[in-house]
Records
---
Amino acid sequence: MSAVLNITDESLNDKYLGLPALVGVDRSDCFRHLIDRISMRVNGWKEKILSSGGKEVLIKSIAQAVPTYAMMVFRIPKKICKGMTDIILQYWWGDDDGKRRIHWQAWWKLCLPKAKGGMGFRDFESFNLALLAKQVWRLLCEPDSLCARVLRAKYYPDGKFLQAKRKSGSSYTWQSVLAGLECFKQGYIWRVGDGSQINIWHDHWIPNSHNMKVFAQRGNTLVSTVDELISPIDGQWDVQLIRSLFWPTDANRILQIPIRNGREDVVAWHHNRNRLFTVKSAYHCQWNQRYRARNNADAADGTSSVSVWKDLWKMLVPSKIKIFAWRVLHG
């Protein structure tokens, strides 16, 4: 392509629209500029005497927004995410040069919503995957776009994007999309139309199930897709067949699912009432997936059961007073 378009190799090593044109084996080196940009911002703030409330605003509105554009396209290496987090933490707990202050709370606790005892900071890795899941949603909703057609022709020619796998020689862009796909799979659900695209035993299509799948095992049955559970006569569920194949719990849940006759099956987002994907809901889904065990253990200890957080942040006092009270309540 570079020969046909008369592009020299040197130009491909530069950045294009702020992103690396080529991502080599050492991916951390390609994204180290994100750490440098945040570090430059923070070093400029250290010259100003800011309250904790001012620090919170700068961190959320500027420092954590710096890598957003790159995160929409690439999966940022964990080493880079940790480097950006370390700079923000050092600035939050104390901005004296050459002095390391005590970090009184773990980073994941600071990322909790304010209503649950945290500071509402953003976890970079979880946010990165949520942004990449947004690209997955776009590829599903706009299958005729140029980007979707190119990726489909190369990586999933059968058109089954949700079953796409990593292939040898895949670009880092596609590898990043697949990382977003794993995040997306945690919250997607099929809405039944004609039922031809939904696999009964593997896909997410049961709204009231905790994992959105059927509990029953397939066994020796030959029935594999949802359209086989729909009566060809009246276009409604075949009640007798469903009750003979599934456990009572599964059967009752399936019979409650509305069938949209004359339409194709469509993918929806389970964590929103309108079934449309949002980065916010995907971020919380991914964050809970990563820190669920720690959060549950913390709740079991009773350290996060204080019910005063909402009242604290509603108080009509300066932000630095609220944050001081937040530290006091955490001991």
---
Amino acid sequence: MVSNEPTLTTETSFVYAIGQIEHRFPNLGLEKEYAQVVGRSETAGFRDRQVTQKVLAERENRYLARQLCWVLRVEGLDTYLLQPRDPMDFEMLIEALSRPYSSEDDVDVVIGLRGPIAPPGMCNGLTVPIVFFDQIYSFDKDTLIKAMPKPQKIEAEQFEGDARDLFSRVVQLADNAGATDEHRALNYLAVRYPEIYHETSRQFIENASLSAVDVRPSRLSGSRKILDVIFSYTHRQSDILEKRFVRVDVTDMFPFLVTKLSPFYER
């Protein structure tokens, strides 16, 4: 276990990242130990991912989970090494493996504190920041989208396709590792605020494109850090521009909505 966990200060860097969690072996010795444990387990008919989840979920094998490297990959890149702030929360990492097979549609949302760069010996030479997490949400895109309330005047198939498109655009924004306030606000909205999907789908039906997504400090910011997230839609024929925005408070580890989606006017 890493001992240099960051403390909560005004300079603390929070993380609200969207990616996929993978496990890796930091050394050959642990890999051989894992293989011996698997050899003693009943795993016939299981896929490799299911085998790992089954083995690590057993209490007597929890020592393996504590010594594995847990990597969050964002857009296919190794981005963070994950460590729970509470040792009991290794359960969340193991649960992230509970899906029957790995898919590009897998979504793991990691919320926590960004710590130092991992030393080369921690995970077989991988030197990325450590995130000490407090919460992990694991699901797939289809589950997220199907759980959203459907707009009454939009067909379900149309809405689900539009929502998938918007979700992909948010998580693929340049350098969105969920470590800046702007990206934390966007990632929070992507997984917790269905109204941005409703509005984007409505705009598509009315022949408008999502032309920009901007994040800027709100004029309401004072003692708290509040951001305006602005969605710009441009009509494909008339070039008329419409903007909608939502305010998000990112002062603390867990962002929250300040005002609902509404028209935005430049001042």
---
Amino acid sequence: MRLIKLHIRNYRSIVDSGDTRIEPLQAFVGENNAGKSNLLYALQAFLTSGTGGVEESAFFDTNNPIIIRATFGKLTSIERKRLRPYLLGDKLIIEKQIRLQGDRKSGKIKPNAEYHGYIAKPKEWWLSVEEVINHDGQRPKWEQVASQHGILDYVKDESGKVTKSSYEAGIRRILLEREDIEFEEPELGQTQALGLQPVLLESLPSFHLLPAITDYSDEIDRRSSSTNFRRLMADLADRILRFDPRFQEIEKALKTVTALLNVPKAGEQREEGQERLTILKNVEEKLKEVIARLMPSVCSVCLEVGIEPTREIFSRGVSIWVDDGKLTEVVMKGHGLQRCVVFGLLQAMILNQRGQLISTPESHTDKIEKDERAIILAIEEPELYIHPQMQRLIYRVLKDFATTDQVIYTTHSPMFIDLSSYEALGVIRKDSLETGTRVCQCDYGVLDEESERKKIPISLQFQFRKKPNVFCKKGDSCRG
């Protein structure tokens, strides 16, 4: 699956971007403050659950919703099968609307998000939970309906019962596995597709954004678990370390520490040597005496010490030290090295997601849960703090990555522009506050021959003219 078109309205400086074509390796160039980064952050908001971090300040006009519409194509056969009810032809078109609404309890204005899309209902009523309710009333006999239509084995839960939720889960499985299901013509949903969001977020590309940070310490902030560094560290513990035979030693040690510091849970059996430290019992009794003098109703006090699991330890407690002649933590290095480290971590995380980061023993190969989701890598100014020679090297890495997944980036550097691939270049302009940020792109076929592409003067690469045909031959048109 790849993102092939993006349309944004009312987000930050973007009043209406128009339909923006997105290529596998997509570059956006433009003057400072034209709104290049806003395209990346709007895409992040779209591919993030909930409101995607959008706040009131992100609305160009607070009286209207933010609307982000994304069109996906190049679906694999598995993706087409899984998303069959939501496809319009061979494309998946999804719209996320974010509105400002008043909270009844607090009275504050908060953003609220909804997904909308094309939905084709199965022709058979019993293949839709909503249609079963319409057919049999608010309290359908789910097991009876399933039995009548021969789908009982699909819709039972672990206990063998059939509930609304288990029926819905079973229907999803039927729609995925069976080829004989017929659908009505798809229609654009006018209300939020409540059953759409979980399926969508599991199927849409995985999104990784490398912002134009100025300090590596932003990435390793221990208060955050969502930065590239923290996500990679969590993955290392959760998906890689457990393949080491000695990983169990870590698990056993954490279990022992937990036992030494905490009271056994009801029915918990502990091994010899894992009895709780006696001194903690004494501390609790003293605390109880002191507190009971102030509050006589207090009968006991119990201390509970939380021990983080391995995943959390690696997510929050790891720092990186680099020896470049002097072994120090990365936060003590220059911005250029910091930027390279974060970029390297992002690449490592992507390799890990592809199952290519480490060589896994054959005995564990079947235990790896391969993530087949496509990846969108978004980078804000990849040239930041990077020497020009290394910029070209990074560009080649991005180009290679785009052969299997997708890269979208903003840049001011000619090292990241290949004008012979003009169709993958978007020029961002903001002619006025009223019109906001717009994207100018050339249509396919402006230069058909390879020889024509090679003749484009390098000097034209950053001539940001007001004319829409800045990169086109005379007589050809350029949208924007």
